[in-house]
Design goal:
The protein is of the alpha+beta class. The protein is elongated. Helix 10 runs parallel beside helix 11. 26% of the residues lie in helices and 27% in strands.
Length: 535
């Protein structure tokens, strides 16, 4: 179980106001910093938790946390002269979590936030972990210092500067240490768990801390992974990383069983493609079903998406759509009418006729659409080779579909018919070596499928991925993005309002890794996505 699950946070949920956290349970926000005992007892039972973890949301709470840090890092350890405050404390993206005793006293805290300046690319660091305890020394949780820092650069956890980042104050490492007071046992561990959960819920894909060699086992017991030894301020330390399995979990849930089920299906040379070329003709067929729960919950949107996903599938094959067939089931005619209204609007917007289909009443909501297109030379999903550039072409306009934040990006609902049709013609015009429409496996999972069908691995340069400003990197790389194509080869795509950018390479081997601005590479998919193998 991930920390986010244990603490009741949903990875990928909006991070603007996550619930408060305790060592055992979550409680709703209160109007004041001090919890009334009756409220806690009513929610969590008796006895109440010894402390609660919450975000520091006011100046008084932050000052209490800074005071604990000053007592530990400046007065007790002497790591800083005068103050341990630095630019990260002033960064509005920095999150401070504090532990508050039943009395309301702040008895510990930790900060976390983006590791580099500029847009948040999903790489965060934790630091300045401190607890108030007269007898217990908490495990250090450090930010790394600048060793070979460049002007205006913040060092990474490994001590290597990243251009555009800022060094910590004095180039010194963080350190947690006992401070006078009476914190309950377990505060330090709870803060570390809460920080990891907050990072995951904020769409972070890489979360690290640098700790002293004498305390790294504390982090190991909490589930952190040891990356490598590093040296901080002339002292031996260990770089630790919190395992975030968001991408791999999505791939396992959506694609991993296809290999056993679909062996031998499809024309020669096309394995796991978005559409199927009909042998002996220039026809390409595609078929997609919409999740029944979505049809029931949002029938008009489901109807729109049933056209969207099929037209995108044909577009990935370089095919021009010529017609649609729908299969609709619902409890009555009124519900079917709602589904078909969305389907017809989308068909009109994309300029594709609805040729016919099948309708059934008195059954649970269900919707699938088959699309037919034409292409003289269909673009395969498995035509890439090691060394080929990976390009993501995506429409960044629009926003999260209401009710589907972090999961469905609606980039198409506001576009004109001309804009939509320009985007879906991009692959057919450019004819890249390989192409796939980004589906429910997300950008990374779709890249993994293209690489697998091409007999390759892949590396994705996270900082180069075109991404909407309002989406976290974790959400963007694992959501359904409306219109987005992953292609391989030197060909550029002209897709109207969509942004197109090279953001990776196909490599020897298998699986998908993320490459970060400091040169670090983290594996997110260890092997093939579907198990269907190369085309």
């Amino acid at each position: 179980m991930s920390s986010s699950q244990a603490l009741g946070l949903q990875p990928g949920a909006a991070a603007s106001a996550p619930p408060q956290l305790s060592a055992m349970a979550a409680v709703p926000a209160q109007p004041t910093g001090v919890r009334r005992a009756a409220d806690v007892h009513a929610l969590l039972g008796d006895p109440a938790p010894r402390f609660l973890i919450e975000r520091a949301a006011d100046a008084e709470t932050l000052q209490a946390y800074y005071a604990l840090r000053h007592q530990a890092f400046v007065e007790a350890q002497g790591l800083f002269a005068g103050s341990d405050r630095d630019d990260r404390d002033d960064d509005p993206r920095t999150v401070v979590l504090v532990a508050r005793a039943q009395s309301g006293e702040v008895v510990g805290g930790v900060r976390l936030g983006p590791a580099v300046d500029g847009p948040d690319i999903g790489w965060w660091q934790g630091g300045r972990l401190v607890t108030a305890s007269g007898a217990h020394r908490s495990a250090p949780h450090r930010d790394a210092p600048a060793h070979r820092a460049v002007p205006g650069a913040r060092p990474t956890a490994g001590g290597h500067a990243v251009p555009g980042a800022r060094p910590t104050a004095g180039g010194q490492a963080d350190s947690g240490v006992a401070a006078a007071g009476g914190a309950a046992p377990g505060v330090g561990a709870a803060l570390v768990r809460a920080a990891a959960a907050w990072a995951e819920a904020s769409g972070v894909l890489r979360f690290e801390a640098t700790v002293q060699t004498g305390t790294y086992r504390f982090f190991q017991r909490l589930g952190w992974e040891t990356v490598r030894p590093v040296e901080v301020a002339g002292r031996p330390h260990v770089l630790m990383r919190w395992p975030i399995g968001r991408v791999q979990q999505l791939v396992a849930a959506t694609k991993s069983e296809l290999g056993e089920l679909l062996q031998g299906v499809g024309p020669e040379g096309f394995v796991g493609d978005d559409g199927a070329p009909v042998p002996g003709s220039d026809l390409v067929a595609a078929c997609d079903a919409i999740v029944p729960a979505m049809v029931e919950r949002d029938p008009e949107w489901a109807g729109w998406c049933s056209v969207l996903v099929n037209v995108n599938d044909l577009a990935a094959m370089g095919a021009t759509p010529v017609g649609l067939l729908d299969s609709v089931g619902a409890r009555d005619g009124a519900f079917v009418a709602r589904i078909l209204s969305g389907l017809r609007r989308a068909a009109q917007a994309y300029g594709v006729p609805v040729l016919g289909g099948h309708t059934q009443f008195g059954v649970p909501a269900a919707l699938s659409v088959t699309a037919l297109g034409k292409a003289e030379e269909p673009v395969p999903g498995g035509g890439g080779r090691p060394g080929d550039a990976v390009r993501l072409t995506a429409d960044l306009g629009g926003g999260w579909r209401p009710g589907y934040a972090g999961r469905q990006w609606d980039s198409t609902g506001h576009r004109s018919s001309e804009e939509l049709q320009t985007m879906v013609k991009a692959v057919g015009r450019a004819k890249p070596k390989a192409a796939k429409d980004v589906s429910m496996a997300g950008v990374v999972g779709t890249l993994g499928m293209l690489a697998e069908a091409s007999g390759c691995g892949a590396v994705l340069d996270v900082a180069d991925v075109p991404k909407p400003a309002d989406a976290s990197m974790g959400d963007w790389l694992t959501c359904f993005p409306g219109f987005a194509m992953v292609t391989a080869g030197p060909q550029e795509l002209e897709a109207g309002p969509a942004e197109s950018r090279v953001c990776g390479r196909l490599t020897e081997g298998q699986g998908v890794s993320l490459r970060w601005p400091d040169g670090e590479i983290t594996e997110v998919i260890p092997a093939g996505v579907t198990g269907m193998g190369a085309a």
